[in-house]
Design goal:
alpha/beta, 30% helix, 7-stranded mixed sheet, 11 strands
């Protein structure tokens, strides 16, 4: 469904050139949980932003359902972001003066959906993340874990094929992080989840595949899980 082929990305500041990504290739399955690990400056967030259509690659190709994005126009990227991608961020990005139902409904406003249908789908999304009884609370009345659940509901309300999560547990304590990861793990059963994280323990516990980035270059390993033992085997990243 989603392929990254030989993608490179540079950022220029005056005469300074930073190679954020260097000839990165990856294939993603329709239903899997992929964790992207690496130190600060390794290119993790750049890769996530390119997958999400928030940033553009300099060379290579992003292929979506067999179609190259090289000739995508702005309207094509808008449609991709609105209908194929859901975003979850570390800082939640909720509107503080609106209740959580309205926050989730906002993700549907540009889709031409009626007000009654927006409310219905937003309620269903919040029920799925365990917040169906708190629809009228505002973000400042909720814990960090609850706010992240709202952000996940907002990301899922359009029923996207791909959920992108940028450090979704970065602002949470250990117990709450596990709750959020359990939720993302459940989400990954019927769609692709790609998560950037600094936490190798969570990545190795929950992800089907862990992708390591260093200096914009790719290293990859595959997690093979069973209930009693975890086996790690080095494999090519083009899986």
């Amino acid at each position: 469904m989603l392929q990254i082929k030989n993608i490179s990305k540079q950022y220029r500041t005056g005469e300074l050139v930073q190679n954020a990504l260097n000839d990165v290739s990856l294939n993603f399955r329709d239903n899997e949980f992929v964790a992207i690990l690496g130190p600060s400056g390794s290119g993790k967030t750049t890769l996530l932003n390119i997958i999400g259509g928030l940033d553009r690659y300099d060379s290579g190709d992003l292929i979506i359902n067999g179609i190259s994005t090289k000739k995508y126009k702005d309207r094509d990227w808008d449609s991709y972001r609105n209908h194929t991608i859901g975003f979850v961020f570390q800082s939640y990005n909720l509107i503080p003066h609106q209740n959580i139902l309205s926050n989730v409904e906002l993700a549907l406003t540009i889709s031409g959906i009626s007000k009654s249908e927006r409310k219905k789908r937003a309620k269903e999304a919040l029920e799925k993340v365990g917040l169906g009884d708190q629809l009228h609370k505002r973000p400042n009345q909720m814990s960090g874990g609850q706010m992240q659940r709202v952000a996940i509901a907002r990301a899922l309300v359009n029923d996207p094929d791909i959920l992108l999560a940028d450090e979704p547990t970065g602002a949470l304590d250990s117990e709450t992080s596990i709750q959020v990861m359990d939720l993302l793990n459940e989400v990954a059963k019927d769609r692709l989840v790609i998560m950037v994280t600094h936490n190798p323990e969570l990545a190795e516990k929950y992800a089907n595949r862990v992708v390591n980035l260093a200096d914009g270059k790719l290293k990859c390993r595959k997690a093979i899980k069973n209930p009693n033992i975890k086996i790690w085997a080095s494999r090519q990243c083009r899986l």
